[in-house]
Every structure is written in structure tokens, then in C-alpha cells.
């Protein structure tokens, strides 16, 4: 590998020049090995945030991050693979019903997931509220479970894109998370290294999402789709609304319970709609076009895969889920139509109740979270319960209630509420 100098690479990007392939390969490799210092990489990340990267730079940057670690290979499996990645939202439990549903349709789902940080929940934190369930699997266990059950949701191992792990932690504390080239390469390096044959991206837009503006969400989506295609992974993105939280719950055990309702053929309409839309895209990406996933929810086969998937990771699908020790009900002050329920306000409240963490490694409360009893567009009457807050530590109610202030509105009966859930499709 050609040797470069960190200051030369930083200055090139500071002055608005594209980085060469050789500079990119060197800087990612040297940073992973510790030869480029954190302060140098933070200066480079800020220069990238300010001056951007063109498509070939982003593609090379992603390839260099993939090359920093191992690459999994599922080509020996007897069925095709498809995965989904969401850029993160509030009440976004979709992975839980989606993975077993797609597996029930004949496509294997290797869903290597993360934990929540801040107001967006983490899939592993949610599943860990199921008694006995284990997030960490070896690569051999992942392969065996994919072959036997068809779906795995587990922790991404340290071997996948270690450069991203280091860089993401640095971006988190240097105000450089929001750069589209860095977000796109961060997400796609992990997904491509994971070895899925096809990928569906759920790019969230709205108050509770990374991307608050539609144009930025579209740009992120098309950047990631191009990266996937450059790497030979069939990739499609749906841009979906995250100004309203998904379903009726945000937290850990409360979201598992709602996911089980969907698998049982019920559950909130928006969760079912998004689960089916993503399932159809995953199946099409994997070349399966003759199965309707709605049938697999209705006939119980998705639920059967869920139960097997939980058992395979030592969880008990029949065990009662943890319930928080304390609850607090917020009632509707007037009658009318709920016209707005803000995703960020609900996400912050769930986080402050103990469903999320403030630093990496902190424990979360399995029973903590928010349950809402009406969705935008629903009629509410004065005095009815609007939201129920759950926590083991009642001293948290005050700050959670503060974050909900101004987070919902009741308007005139019949007033229009909310935006459509599915906003765009980018392929
Ligand atoms: N998720 C990631 O994995 N990386 C980012 O940069 C942002 C969200």
C-alpha cells in the first residue's frame, strides 16, 4: 500500500479536492491500525462533512472500510438471502415481525443488528426483554440457524468493518455524524460485509429521524442504493415517514408485545403496512415473486418461524414479558381529533423513562416505554387516556413528561392528520 501523510490527505479535502483511491485506502487502513490519530481523523471527517465526496470517493471509502475486517459469505445456504436496514426511528419494531415473515416465505434473513443509543431504540435491546434470549452468536451458529430456521437477529460481531466502529464513535463526539457520505458508507460497509444477497433500506424522514428533510433523505437513499449496486448487492430503498412514531408503543418489551400481535395477524395498521411493504421488496430482491407475505401472517407460519427463531437463541417465546413497576397516565384535556403525535417527543420520553441509554454499555429497563392510545387522525374524548408512561424508577416521570410537552395536538373533529407512511421508492 502506498504511504501517505495524514496532513496531506486532510488538506486535500479541506481545499475541496477529491481524495485519490490510494489516499482513501491508506487513511482508513492507517486509522484502523492506530497510525492516524483520532484528532487527524476528526479533522478529515469535518472536511468531508463540509466539502462532501463524489460517488467514486464514497464507493472507495466504503470498500476500504469493508476491507478493514472480515466478510461473511452465505452462498452455501440452500436459499437466497435478503436483509433490511432502517436508518432508525421511534417505535420502529419492524425487524421483529419482518425477519420471521420473510423467512416463512422462503428467503433467509441474516439480520445483524445494533443497540439503541439516544432516542432511537435498538432491536437487540427489544429482543433482550424476552427471558433467556441471547444476542451473541458465533458465525457457525448464524449459518446453522439460517439453514434450519431461516431467520437470525443477532449482534454484529466485532470483525465486521472495524474501521466503521472506530470512526462512528469518533463522529458521535465530533459533530460529524450528519455527513451523508459518512452515514451512507458507514451503513453500507456493514451491510455489504455481512454478505446479504439483497438489501432493502428503510430511510426515515421526519422529526424522529436522522434526516429531517425529504431532499436529504432522498439523497441518502440514492447514495446507499448506488453503493449497494456498485458492490453487486441488489439494493432498493423506501423513504418512509418518521414524524409520527410507528404503531402504538415505544420501548423494549412493549414493542415485542406489539410485534407478536402483528405476527398473530393483528397489530396496528401502520406497522402491518410497513412490514408487508418491506417484505415484498425483500422477496422481490431475492427473486421470490410467487408468495404473498400477507398470507403468511394470516396462516400463522410467520409466527411459527418467530417462535423457532426465539427458541434457537435460548429465549422462551411463551414466557410473560417484563412489566415496569410504575405507570403514569396522560389524559386528553379536550375532545376532538388527535392531529399530531411527534416522534421525537415520544422517543425522548421513552428514552428518559429508561428504555434507552445515555452512554454505550449502560443497561436499559426492559419494561420502560410509552404506550399511546390514539394515533393521529383518531377521535379522542376529554378525560380518556392518551398516553401511558412506564418505568421502574418513578423519579423519571417528570423529565419524560417534560419531553412530551408540545409533542401532541388535539384539533377540530375531522381535521386532516399526519402524512402518508410510504413516501418514495428509490431503486
Ligand atoms: N447508522 C450507522 O450505522 N452509521 C451512521 O453513520 C448512521 C447511522
From TrEMBL:
Instruction: Look up the EC number in the record and give it.
Output: 2.4.2.4
- Can you name one GO molecular function term for this protein? thymidine phosphorylase activity
Does DNA-binding appear among the keywords?
A: no
Keywords from the named record = Glycosyltransferase, Transferase
> Which InterPro entries has this protein been placed in?
Glycosyl_Trfase_fam3, Glycosyl_Trfase_fam3_N_dom, Glycosyl_Trfase_fam3_N_dom_sf, Nuc_phospho_transferase, PYNP-like_C_sf, PYNP_C, Pyrmidine_PPas_bac/euk, Pyrmidine_PPase_CS
Q: Which residues form the Pyrimidine nucleoside phosphorylase C-terminal domain?
A: 337-411
Superkingdom of origin organism: Bacteria
NCBIfam families to which the protein is assigned, alphabetical: PRK05820.1, Y_phosphoryl
**Binding partners and assembly:** Homodimer.
Similarity annotation: Belongs to the thymidine/pyrimidine-nucleoside phosphorylase family.
Tell me the protein's name: Thymidine phosphorylase
Q: Say which species the protein is native to.
A: Nocardioides malaquae
Lineage at the top is: Bacteria, Bacillati, Actinomycetota, Actinomycetes, Propionibacteriales
